[in-house]
Amino acid sequence: MRIAIEIASSVDELSPREAAWIADAQRELSTRRITALFTLRAAGADPAVIAQVSKLLGEATAMLALELRRSEWGLERQLLVAGVRGAKVPSRFHVLELAEDGLRLSPDAGVPADADADAETPLYIGAPPYLQGAEKRLYVQRLRRHLETAGGPGVKPAHGRPFFSQLLGELYAPRTDFGAVLVSEPGVVRHLAEKGLLMALENVFPEHSALFIDKALKQATFFGHLFAVPQHVSVRVLYYRVDLLRKHGLSPPHTWDEVESQTSYVLRHERDPELSGLTFEYRPSVRLGLLLDHVWASGEDLYAGDVGGFSFNQARVVEALKRLRRFVDETQHTRLSVTPSEHWDSLQRFFNGKSLFLHHWSDGLRLIHERGQDAHKRFGWCPLPTTGRGVQGHALAAGVSYVVPKNTRQPGAERLAIRRLADPEFLARMEPQFGWPFPASALLYDDARVLEAHPFYAEAHELLLHSRLLEEAPYLAGDPFEWTRVAGEALGRAFRALRTDALEPEQIAHELNEGLTRLVPKPAYSGLSARAADLIERELHQPLTGEILAQRLGVSRPHLAATFRRATGHTLHDYLTDRRIGRARELLHHSELNVGEIAARLGYKTIHHFSRVFKEETGQSPRQFRNSR
Amino acid sequence: MAARRERPASTTVSVRLGVPGLDELWGGGLTPGASVALSGPAQSGKTWFAVQFLLAGAERGDVVLYAKVSQRKEARETLPLAGRLADLEKSGRVTLHNERPIDRSRRGSARGSSVTVPRCGSRSK
What we know:
The complex is a heterodimer. Helices cover about 45% and strands about 20% of the residues of chain A. Chain A is built from 27 helices and 20 strands. In chain A, strands 9, 12, 13, 16, 17, 18, 19 and 20 form an eight-stranded mixed β-sheet that branches. In chain A, strand 3 and strand 4 (about 75-85) form a beta hairpin. In chain A, helix 22 packs across helix 23 (about 555-570). The model of chain A is unreliable at about 110-120, about 150-165, about 210-220 and about 435-445 (pLDDT under 50). Chain B has helices spanning about 45-60, 80-90; strands spanning about 35-40, 65-70, 95-100. In chain B, helix 2 (about 80-90) links the parallel strand 2 and strand 3. Residues about 1-15 and about 105-125 of chain B have low confidence and may be disordered. The N and C termini of chain B lie far apart (about 35 Å). Chain B is built from two helices and three strands. Strand 2 (about 35-40) of chain A pairs parallel with strand 1 (about 35-40) of chain B.
């Protein structure tokens, strides 16, 4: 027999009574020859903590301490084996990896020690945050070899560096050695680009910039510039048990109603008591996405956008919450996953045959393909269902992108490096293990070698047609982490309420609205003036005049001019000029477009006209302004 | 960590911790009746460790018990590998136990108090 006793209190905070209880427990278990594990909360693995624990559990056979440590590979779990009674074990830290089936000691693959020996000026390349331990090392090793083969002046790749969020400070430093860095979501890219921290990249991909900007990668372009090279994407899909649906004469569902009815039907007729209907997870980071998947199933949005602002789509949210409640409460057919580890747990549950449907990220597709033909007979996948046939719904897409810090020491080398990251030969070798290409890759990376290496990409792109990035939503403005936090908290209460039946969906929707509406950008003005301001903001690159604006808004020019001045205190001409010069400052500051290109992008017919207006407004010529940045 | 009690001298490998790679560090495992102290900050993997420790026992036929001494009651679904634990719990090989918090207001020894070591021998294999 064995027992694990977890003590939630911190070692520092234990009262004498609690300490005595723990010591007694240890003695009693030892007397009964029951093998026991005691876990205690402690700040770290320093000698003082080990001494405290040792004093508390003096008879322990093994003394172990976990610590979260920053290393060149990111935040790592490390285990200190401080001592084992009766065995000669050196006291040292070991790296622990957390895989889908639990913790294990890292095989310590490591990178060759001499790898950085020749690096005069290291160029740090980020590794994807979704890769851990050995996989991350392998990724970095391949990336380094690829960059070394590519050569080129100034390219001295060092080793992979951790996920971007740990390195935000680097972006604010006067200079950084960081090159291509991965960020987790397009929303983060936009947030950083707004702050002027990222290098514009369209000049790195001149032959592809039209594709990037005008067609597929709107998600990576902000303020008319490309700031990120997308690297990986995952889309929400519905997985289903092919064998069970076929056995009962059912087709893959097109609508959520069909998911419900098929779930009821199959579970009524299957004898397996462990089979559940629909498995989905609702960690804080995916809660908003989960709700949106159901709102978007109707072809509508979370907020109804109009020029004067955004209004919460209460009816659709209530409908989506009711559907989720039916899954959770009435059918008793749903299994909700709740912990961070559940990303793998829910996948495992489905692939172990314990669930009829799984609402999950498309990462799982790889598992089907890796398991071969037999898996195809048991497991299938399709785009997320909608609320009715003929309705075009969307699934949430997310992905990581490479960005280049603007304060980098080696802009030339980093441009070359990031260009190599999009190299088809590299992608063909890297992506079997490391994820999908981004939606646009079908266009940008349309290369026979890539498609030959990954034939299922063709199927994957079908899904991407039904996907939407959260960041495409116009109401999602400002700090993306704030949105995730607020939505996560509000929906956390909502889902708990769904399970306990404590709140009606209408109340939950109201609460969610209260939380999210605070983050929705407020229009500066209302009515006709707001519509004019919005039009100016969206079409700043056009040669707009008062006459054109009035025509577009369907009113007379004098009426528009008078209304606008009354509401804002500015004339249309002054406001237009102010916004153009503001945008020009951003472009001069954040981009590498030349002055002529900037003038053209702001609707000025000649560079001279633009320069004159700019100088009148700022006291400096555009070139002086840029040089003084 | 001074030795206060005689331990069996045997080095027989009989109790594995369930974390691949760890037992091999000191020759393969622990003897029955051994106790392991594991400390660490939040999110460092203590619960993962505990669950793996129990699953390793359950998979070799041991009856195992998980007890959390906490001020708040936590849903068992939040445990790592909750699916596997639930399967084993149904088969009677795992017991999940919510222990009451230790009364911090009372002075004196815990011996004989209402808070005791969770009953370990109540289930047979």
